[in-house]
Amino acid sequence: MTPVPSLAHTREELSDVLADARKEGRRIAFVPTMGALHEGHASLMREAARHADVVVVSIFVNPMQFGPSEDLDRYPRTLPDDLELCGANGVAVAFAPATDEMYPGGFSHDSVRDGVTVHPGRLATILDGESRPGHFDGVLTVVAKLFGLVQPDVAVFGQKDYQQLALIRAMVRDLCLPIEIVGAETMREPDGLAMSSRNRYLDPAQRQAATALSRALLAAQTRAAYGVPPARWAAISVLRSEPAIEVDYLALTSVNLADPPEIGEGRILVAARLGKTRLIDNMPIQFSTPAGNAPAGPVTDEGSS
């Protein structure tokens, strides 16, 4: 029988279920999620268990990181299934708070702007930050709240949300938070599509077309030995072959999301829409020819029909 994690809905309940672990000095690992869990999340739980004695998972669809026209209302909520997956992957505690618990008095974007939030800085103005203004304010604010409630020794985040991972690392560094941040490898479906809770929105034709994202990144990897422009155009050519894809951005950067290096490791990142569903992906990329003066910023709408 699959073990069931202890379930906490309030701050007080969370504190109570973690009291013994804290008293005994056990190491606590934390995996923040928005639920609709899948094997990608399970891999984060297993990674967390390698770093600590007790694994805590939060399940909270954070309204602050959604824009007014985004998919907050239709974002899947699957708590019973989520708890089963947590139990099967060694999670001791699941924290599933209501919105009022995380935003006392209720949530509205206007009320949040009047309160104390985390300002993510310049890194949040590019890529996903440019496409989704205010998104990373919401991400960092809720993660900071959750860090304060869980008080983990280590927290695990997936590399699929690479910019988010970079910003969380920056927040921990700049705010002197005593938490180790682990970035776990992206989990993929057998056809290469990065695992995501939003994949379930795709119809069969869109699901097939979505594989162009990972194929584009792989194509860029194979051409990176020749520099940034060939790598970029290899990716763009794949994306343009799928008329269902509307590209939001395609960017080649350094590992810290600055300009790509002339020689050495960088990152290639893509965001695109298939119908109403927005997907992101990224991969490491290795340059062995000087990048010259090739632009590093996002390529907007390349490959859209």
Structural commentary:
The protein has 305 residues and is of the alpha/beta class. It has helices spanning 11-23, 39-49, 79-88, 99-102, 109-113, 128-131, 135-150, 162-174, 204-223, 228-240; strands spanning 6-8, 28-33, 54-59, 93-95, 154-158, 180-184, 245-254, 264-274, 277-287. Helix 7 packs across helix 8 and helix 9 (204-223) runs antiparallel to helix 10 (228-240). The chain is globular and about 55 Å long. Residues 292-305 have low confidence and may be disordered. The protein has 2 domains: 6-184, Rossmann fold; 199-287, Pantoate--beta-alanine Ligase, Chain: A,domain 2 (2-Layer Sandwich), CATH 3.30.1300.
Brief characterization of the structure:
This protein is an alpha/beta fold.
